[in-house]
Amino acid sequence: MSNRLQKIADKNIKLSDVARLAECSTGTASRALSRPDMVSKEVIKRVQEAVEKLGYTPNNAAKSLRLRHTNIIGVVIPTIDHSIFAQAVSALENRLYQLGYSLLVTTSEFDFKRELQKTQLLVERGSEAVVLVGRMHDPKLYEFLAARRIPYINTYAYRPSEGHPFIGFDNAKATRQITEHLLTLGHTDIGVISGMTKDNDRATDRVAGVKEAYRARGKELPAERITEQPLTIDGGRDGLRYLLSRDKPPTAVVCGSDILAFGALSECTARGLRVPEEISIVGFDDHEMAAHLRLTTMQVPAVEMGQRAADYLVAKLQDRPVVDHVELEVRLIARGTAAPPKRKNARAKAEKSQ
Amino acid sequence: MSNRLQKIADKNIKLSDVARLAECSTGTASRALSRPDMVSKEVIKRVQEAVEKLGYTPNNAAKSLRLRHTNIIGVVIPTIDHSIFAQAVSALENRLYQLGYSLLVTTSEFDFKRELQKTQLLVERGSEAVVLVGRMHDPKLYEFLAARRIPYINTYAYRPSEGHPFIGFDNAKATRQITEHLLTLGHTDIGVISGMTKDNDRATDRVAGVKEAYRARGKELPAERITEQPLTIDGGRDGLRYLLSRDKPPTAVVCGSDILAFGALSECTARGLRVPEEISIVGFDDHEMAAHLRLTTMQVPAVEMGQRAADYLVAKLQDRPVVDHVELEVRLIARGTAAPPKRKNARAKAEKSQ
DNA sequence: TTGTAGGCGTTATCAT
DNA sequence: ATGATAACGCCTACAA
Question: What domain count does chain B have?
């Protein structure tokens, strides 16, 4: 490497360095890279060689400033830990990459205030558009995005009447469907292990769905048949313990997520309660493990949501027409953990192990 | 809102707009926001009000261009789908947020070429530093980072002799330890269900660790006792099926990840093979489910790795002193799926179900 | 086809 | 304490 080259290489290489080495103007070097059709083959070659030699990487800040866009999109999820979010984010990132965008990821920890802050930060850091989870957010969040005309999309929920763009599914409808499945099997005493509903419309809606199914049959779901737990296996276990400790333990349990259902299943095993003979358990998500534990559950279209969210926002950024309300299908996957009730056994066992 | 205000608000608000409304110069407005100590209380107040009124968000591209840093750090992981990576990324993001940085996330799909491309893209999009998974990468990747003096850190591996910065653990040492545990229990015929080793040094090293443990006892692990499978539950099932179909089926199986172990366990259940009485199964990761399936496994310090990676890179970016080689502890968590062998039964069953 | 020059929005330097 | 001004690196009219 020549001395002169060395000297250049020691600093941060910019386009003018490339141009100097390629013996052309900066403007030409720029065109050689972004619009080769406007430049002679010879010069293009020289520029490419110079880029190679110097290890030039364009300065995105300068480019963004000039072009007024960053090719960055942000996503705010409650937590990355849940495999269901991870799947969606993964699909989102993959599609964005294909479309020429990069993904800034941040978490809200199921906290509206934090979600607002993190979204603002994402925008400050260059996000041109944002993917949100759920339908409820701090009103200031919507204001913030509207004031800056920043495209956004709500996922994991579907409530077009609220006037926001949605790509997702109706959580209440989904649990209503799964509850109806249990009611049809003959269950009358159903319990609910929900995730914490604070700042979490998905959890809230899922509980509401169970209540709706009850009401549709002219009944009411007793409040003491609902328990809120952290979204962990232990949360599921604790939830089931709680439900079984009530006066009238349920013969079937709707869980707000598969993780909770795994915990509930685990507690059944520990107690020697046979599933589904003595108690039915259903989940939500269709987690990878669900199939192997024969868990009856709702399949959530995580991958499709991620992909479509990417498509939507990029189309929006490019002023292409867009469908603001996309309801995706959730599917009840009936496996082996839900069956008609055998009340007596279930209750007897529950009382015994009390 | 006044007409004039409206007019300003219709465009993208910049600092000069704020300054105009606050009746001061752009420079003063800038200082009012970033170094309030240099500005009079009055002006600060006027500027803050103007910011509020106009909904001003700083243009990060301009700021980055001027300040020559972006406050963005990138991470390239093989896939987000694995909960173990998700945990680390989560911890990484949280710590980076505390330190004032945002996180660009991308995936390599266990492919060196793609890892190189994605890393380059991350840098183009403004990453000042990058977190990598594993110790082996395309040589060009190291060249690329070195040429631009971009700080990076290898995680999920530890091999200081290779001259790169590491925050992680020695995968070979870890499986060597877990294999010794099995050997000490009395097993002599051990099988391995590994993840695909192509472009994956963690998987490669984990297999190597089992071999080392064998050699330390003057034995050799037969090649046909090793099977590579995709990192899924089905991969684990297939792996176990394969191992049990060999001439001399193993009495214990080392799995390259908990997911594979779950699959192996599932296959045992399906065959009526009792664990650990008839066959021992051990995993790697300490996945949330592992405790509930009583899986003996290696605990990986995912959260600590994520946090320390953040600390390391930020310190490096700020020219603070830094420790380049941090070996984190992995811990053997002995639960219920590993016990002394009862050869005859295991082999008989295996042959029968053939 | 190529070169020149202005400006994207911000901050830091240098005056005042 | 404040204002004017230059510069960060790039792209794109405009001119040649």
Answer: 2
